[in-house]
Write a structure and sequence with these properties.
The protein is mainly alpha-helical and 298 residues long. The protein has 13 helices and no strands. It is globular.
Length: 298
């Protein structure tokens, strides 16, 4: 019996590695899907750079691929480290290494800092959740990510000076950190329900994803918008997103016309909903995890 233990351990290790690799691939795919999704108001898409002067969809995809090793390490840590405090420290260190890899891949351009935080937590929580044999439930994974986000990371700097952090302090909002600690409510309460609703009523996949983005934009105190345009830009963008959805989303003629008006207004304000884009990528990741698990079970 004892002689079989190493074989069992090896098999278990192989299963963990397979899960981690799969989750890392899904995270990269979610980021690439978000980058290439078109049309996205104010954001980089296949038509152009939106409100940005230093970003292209190709650069976003290069950045996403450069982050795969970090997502793999986070998923491996989620599978292997049982102590939540130690796990939080480990993924914090991996996240900082991932930022350096991102900057090296992009020539110093911040493409995915917020996404590293959001998707990194979700990949870790998913590996931890699924390694225990639990179902790949998006809401449960998001809750697990929230529990990790609430733990302190002693290696994290007290202040980063990032625009999002400054916007949080100036406008009194939670930002990416607040979303994560709350279990990603914009993802589980807005993006995923809209994604499912749009698919169910017959919208095309790209249209469903854009509608999911708009659902996040409609309610999120997006620090990217606040940093670039303040409260006025945030309120205008939220109202515009709500209007598109109220008219049936972008699959309807009236909704598409409202999206065009929203894009025109955002170009005038020179603003971009980068926080909402990160949360859309998070929603696409959770959606991919659920659907991938459903395929394996069927």
């Amino acid at each position: 019996m004892t002689a079989l233990n190493p074989l069992r351990q090896s098999a278990a290790s192989g299963l963990c590695d397979g899960l981690a690799k799969r989750l890392a691939d899904l995270a990269v795919e979610a980021l690439i899907d978000e980058a290439m999704l078109t049309p996205k108001p104010g954001l980089v898409d296949m038509r152009g750079s939106g409100a940005h002067t230093d970003l292209t969809w190709m650069l976003m995809c290069r950045s996403a691929c450069a982050l795969r090793p970090a997502f793999l390490q986070m998923a491996q840590a989620g599978s292997a480290i049982g102590d939540a405090t130690l796990l939080r420290r480990r993924i914090g260190a991996i996240g900082r290494e991932a930022e350096a890899a991102m900057m090296a891949a992009t020539g110093g351009v911040n493409t995915h800092r917020g996404a590293i935080w959001a998707l990194g937590l979700l990949v870790t929580a998913a590996a931890r959740h699924m390694q225990r044999g639990d179902s790949a439930d998006a809401e449960a994974i998001a809750l697990g990510a929230g529990l990790l986000a609430r733990l302190e990371d002693p290696g994290a700097p007290a202040r980063t000076g990032n625009k999002g952090e400054l916007a949080c302090r100036e406008h009194g909002v939670g930002g990416a950190r607040g979303q994560a600690r709350a279990g990603f409510p914009a993802v589980v309460e807005q993006a995923l329900p809209m994604l499912r609703l749009a698919r169910a009523r017959g919208d095309g996949e790209a249209q469903a994803r854009v509608n999911a983005l708009l659902a996040v934009m409609a309610g999120l105190d997006d620090t990217c918008l606040l940093a670039r345009g303040g409260r006025k830009a945030l309120a205008s963008t939220q109202a515009g997103a709500r209007r598109v959805l109220a008219l049936g989303g972008i699959a309807s003629p009236n909704g598409r016309a409202a999206l065009t008006r929203l894009e025109t207004r955002m170009r005038q304000l020179h603003v971009s909903p980068g926080g909402a884009a990160d949360l859309l990528a998070a929603a696409l990741l959770l959606d991919r995890i659920e659907r991938s698990a459903d395929k394996e079970q069927s």
